[in-house]
Amino acid sequence: MNEEGALRFLRRRKDVPSRRFQRGVYLLPSLLTMGNMFCGYACIVYGTRGEFETAAPFIGFAFVLDMLDGRIARMTGSESAFGLQFDSLADVVSFGVAPAILSLNWGLQPLGRLGWAVGFMFVAAAAMRLARFNIQSAAGADKRYFVGMPSPAAAAVPAATVYAAYPWAPHDYRGALLVLVMVLVPAVLMVSTIRFRSFKTFDLQSRRPYTVLIFIAGGIVLVATHPRFVLVAMAYTYLASAFIGLAITRFRHRGGVPIDAPRPPVEAEPPRGSAAR
Asked: Minimal CA–CA distance to 105: which of 124, 118, 121?
């Protein structure tokens, strides 16, 4: 036995690196992602049963777990290619299939095959949105903004609407058309190039004024006491925020002229002291 082997044999147990702990750190974000996917599956199960008041909040739970798994992975340095792909697949279930099935069983049934097609368009848009996000993240896109509406925020629109409108549900063609618009608008925004504000750059470790905690506590109280109204207001406010920001950007300039608008040619002035003859 060589000297290195003897030293390895005599090494104390507490000096050996704990591989089990390192695996646990990498496992934690994956467990949160698994919980995210379970919430999407539970939403599908309850939605097919017609228990919409129970099904809709599961998309909100998946939203919270989706934010936590990425944040914890970055804070612990446990980001991996597997975690990125697993998170995307879970998001397709929770923010693509689940809200589509929920909307179909709640209000798209009177439209027949058109309702099936609209639900599938939402699923396809969510899948394309997530694939494009992975490509842009690998290319180093601006983290302050999302290109297109994020799939969790898009899924929150039908989920919050169903939860707020319960026990009412459309049973005729006219009411189903409103549900169609509710599903199509977020689907189109997911595959659009409109920029939505991202909150990933918000630093939780930096010092903040005490008033920030007061506002956060007030928001928690509002969600706890009036969840139906507050959640639907938050979902539609974020949806409208992109259009508001786009309008402010376009009309901020004098005369409402866009930045890339061509300017008229400027005629050269005659030299001073010269007179027309």
From this structure: 118
Q: What pLDDT digit, counting tens, does each position of 225-253 carry?
A: 998 999 999 999 999 988 888 888 777 76
Return the closest-CA partner of residue 190 out of 122, 94, 119.
122
76 band by pLDDT with thresholds 50, 70 and 90: confident
Q: Annotate the chain with DSSP letters as a single string.
A: --HHHHHHHHS-GGGS--HHHHHHHHHHHHHHHHHHHHHHHHHHHHHHHT-HHHHHHHHHHHHHHHHHHHHHHHHHT---HHHHHHHHHHHHIIIIIHHHHHHIIIIIGGGTHHHHHHHHHHHHHHHHHHHHHHHHHHTT--TTEEES--HHHHHHHHHHHHHHHTT----SHHHHHHHHHHHHHHHHHHTS--EEE--TT--SSS---HHHHHHHHHHHHHHHHSHHHHHHHHHHHHHHHHHHHHHHHHHSSGGG--TTSPPPPPPPPPPTT----
254 or 171, greater pLDDT: 171
Query: Poorest-confidence range of 23-27, 32-36, 236-240?
Result: 23-27
Residues 159 and 95: beta-carbon distance below 8 Å: no
Termini Cα distance of the chain: 109
Domains, the chain, ordered by start: 11-204 (1.20.120.1760)
CA distance 186 to 126: 9
Tens digit of each residue's pLDDT (9 = 90 or more) over 79-136: 888 888 899 999 999 999 999 999 999 999 999 999 999 999 999 999 999 999 888 8
